[in-house]
Recover the amino acids of this structure.
């Protein structure tokens, strides 16, 4: 890969990370459930002095640490992964910052109390933006955010497919969000997991599969 192509791919991935942060902020701001991978982070942010972006950063750094641990006990050499691990750090910082920045912007632009219709508009629009941004990262094909790379490192250790482990990982995070929100609220309610969470879980993947083939011209541009 030439330096020119590499710079284009990393810029595209950076753009996808920025848009992913904005999309997650948009979905979460609707207050009818956040994305599965962000659900536990969001619950912890509601019951701490940390912002949603800050809890997301802590969570992603923890995943990077776990990646290093799993690589150490797995068959792969660390030298096969160290670049991919290091590049995650600046990207998760940008990702977490964009969650808080986009949330701040939404608070300025939208009323404190949202109608259910507006909430669904935010969820649908945010899910479309999330799908588009994930599609950009697929086209860029140079790096992964820590959640996906964690699954990539972990799934060979248990001899299961990437998609199987990714689905289980999302379910685990949603279950964690439900349990912790029950504990924090004295078993009075579930926070962060609602119909918007289900919508995102069901629609994001298929939408990505629809978008990626339509970005062939962008893929061709990267390899010029």
């Amino acid at each position: 890969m030439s330096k020119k192509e590499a710079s284009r791919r990393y810029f595209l991935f950076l753009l996808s990370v920025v848009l992913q942060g904005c999309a997650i902020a948009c979905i979460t701001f609707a207050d009818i459930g956040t994305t599965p991978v962000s659900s536990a982070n969001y619950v912890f942010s509601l019951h701490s002095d940390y912002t949603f972006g800050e809890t997301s950063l802590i969570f992603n750094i923890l995943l990077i640490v776990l990646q290093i641990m799993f690589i150490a006990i797995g068959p792969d050499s660390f030298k096969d992964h160290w670049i991919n691990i290091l590049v995650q750090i600046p990207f998760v910082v940008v990702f977490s910052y964009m969650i808080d920045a986009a949330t701040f912007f939404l608070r300025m632009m939208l009323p404190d109390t949202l109608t259910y219709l507006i909430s669904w508009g935010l969820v649908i629009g945010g899910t479309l933006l999330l799908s588009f941004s994930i599609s950009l990262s697929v086209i860029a094909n140079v790096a992964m955010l820590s959640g996906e790379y964690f699954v990539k490192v972990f799934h060979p250790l248990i001899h299961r497919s990437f998609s199987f482990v990714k689905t289980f990982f999302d379910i685990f995070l949603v279950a964690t969000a439900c349990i912790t929100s029950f504990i924090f609220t004295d078993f009075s309610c579930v926070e962060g997991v609602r119909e918007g969470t289900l919508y995102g879980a069901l629609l994001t993947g298929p939408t990505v599969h629809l978008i990626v083939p339509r970005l062939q011209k962008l893929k061709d541009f990267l390899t010029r």
Summary: The radius of gyration is 18 Å. The chain is about 75% helix and 0% strand. The mean pLDDT is 94. The chain has one domain: 3-222.
